[in-house]
């Protein structure tokens, strides 16, 4: 056993070495004044050994119990040492005792578990964001089909400009109808937190521009409602001189309209085609609402069946315009 003022250690001999190996072991572990007196290179040279052979002898026939102060709990603990480098490293960086190692391992495992949970949570949040953005993109791609008023669009712009992501339940309740409308259109996403009495509102960055474009388009359309309302469209159908069979059109040609003609979606029209000389034809297209309004009887009389009205309209030569 060797003692120094700085450290306390015990050399443990094992496997019954002979006298020469025992002397070599004592020389190897001789530690005084914070340093080993014999370096491995010197010892291996004096004893005609390689550094590897020296290490095998030391490892087979000895080890050192080094007393260290555990940095975790400041308790004195013994550390099994197998080489000079291990000895010096343990002096510089005192290892933890077994109890502190166990605590540290548990702490690392708990930290690792929390990191995994945080990563999983972040992954789930990222997936939710991706899913929300996907729904937003789908909604933005079909926003032209949505139905909301200018005032509702302006309110949503006000929300985007002035409100944080979280709003109070009272504010949400007050504007529930409008917010739910945009939610049903999938232009916003709403998450209610009833426990903490707030609501989170998510929306894509493009939404404000979409709403502004909607308002501008509505204004533009309302300002441009100066086109002439059409009541009947009629034109000449020229005979196709290249007509051969049912795979080619019987009539063909071009036509130039002298003014805008707007046929709104959902307009029900009556069409008619009349034969003319030289196998030509004449086509008319008339909104049925104009026909019925024009031919309505006084309210005290029975209304005619709509088919009779349409047939009578077609029979009347005045409605052919040729």
Structure notes:
With 322 residues, the protein is of the alpha+beta class. The chain has eleven helices and eleven strands. The strands form four sheets. It has a three-stranded antiparallel sheet with strand order 1-4-5. Helix 2 packs across helix 3 (51-61), helix 6 packs antiparallel against helix 9 and helix 10 (288-295) packs across helix 11. The protein is elongated, with a radius of gyration of 48 Å. Residues 1-5 have low confidence and may be disordered.
For this entry, give a set of tags.
single chain; 45% helix; three-stranded antiparallel beta sheet; 11 helices; disordered N terminus; Arc Repressor Mutant, subunit A; 322 residues; elongated; 3 domains; 11 strands; alpha+beta
Q: CATH top level of the largest domain?
A: Mainly Alpha
Q: Provide the CATH topology of the largest domain.
A: Arc Repressor Mutant, subunit A
Biggest sheet details: 3 strands, antiparallel
* Annotation field: number of helices: 11
Low-pLDDT segments? 1-5
SS elements, strand count: 11
Share of residues in helices: 40-55%
Q: Strand pairing plus helix content: what structural class?
A: alpha+beta
Shape: elongated
The succession of helices and strands, N to C, reads EHEEHHEEHHHEHHEEHEEEHH
Q: Identify the quaternary structure here.
A: single chain
Number of domains: 3
The main sheet orders its strands as 1-4-5
Distance between the termini: 130 Å
Mean pLDDT: 81
Beta-strand portion reads: 15-25%
Question: Can you tell me the CATH architecture of the largest domain?
Answer: Orthogonal Bundle
Rounded to the nearest angstrom, the radius of gyration is: 48 Å
């Amino acid at each position: 056993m060797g003692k120094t003022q700085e450290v306390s250690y015990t050399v443990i001999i094992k496997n019954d070495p002979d006298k020469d190996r025992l002397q070599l072991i004592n020389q190897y572990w001789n530690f005084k004044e914070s340093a080993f007196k014999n370096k491995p290179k010197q010892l291996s040279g004096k004893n005609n050994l390689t550094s590897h052979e020296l290490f095998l002898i030391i490892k087979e026939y000895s080890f050192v119990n080094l007393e260290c102060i555990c940095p975790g709990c400041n308790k004195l603990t013994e550390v099994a040492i197998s080489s000079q480098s291990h000895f010096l490293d343990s002096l510089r960086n005192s290892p933890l005792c077994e109890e502190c190692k166990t605590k540290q391992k548990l702490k690392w495992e708990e930290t690792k578990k929390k990191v995994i949970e945080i990563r999983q949570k972040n992954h789930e949040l990222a997936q939710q964001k991706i899913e929300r953005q996907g729904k937003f993109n789908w909604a933005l791609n079909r926003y032209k089909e949505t139905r909301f008023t200018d005032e509702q669009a302006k309110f949503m712009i006000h929300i985007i400009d002035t409100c944080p992501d979280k709003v109070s339940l009272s504010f949400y309740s007050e504007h529930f109808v409008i917010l739910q409308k945009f939610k049903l259109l999938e232009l916003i996403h709403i998450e209610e937190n009833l426990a903490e009495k707030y609501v989170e509102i998510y929306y894509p960055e493009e939404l404000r521009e979409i709403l502004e474009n909607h308002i501008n388009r509505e204004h533009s359309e309302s300002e441009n409602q100066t086109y002439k309302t059409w009541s009947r469209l009629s034109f000449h159908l020229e005979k196709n001189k290249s007509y051969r069979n049912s795979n080619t059109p019987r009539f063909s040609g071009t036509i130039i309209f002298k003014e805008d003609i707007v046929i709104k979606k959902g307009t029900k029209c009556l069409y008619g085609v009349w034969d003319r000389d030289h196998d030509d034809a004449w086509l008319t297209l008339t909104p049925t609402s104009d026909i019925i309004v024009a031919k309505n009887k006084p309210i005290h009389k029975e209304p005619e069946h709509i088919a009779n009205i349409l047939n009578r309209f077609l029979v009347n030569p005045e409605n052919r315009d040729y």
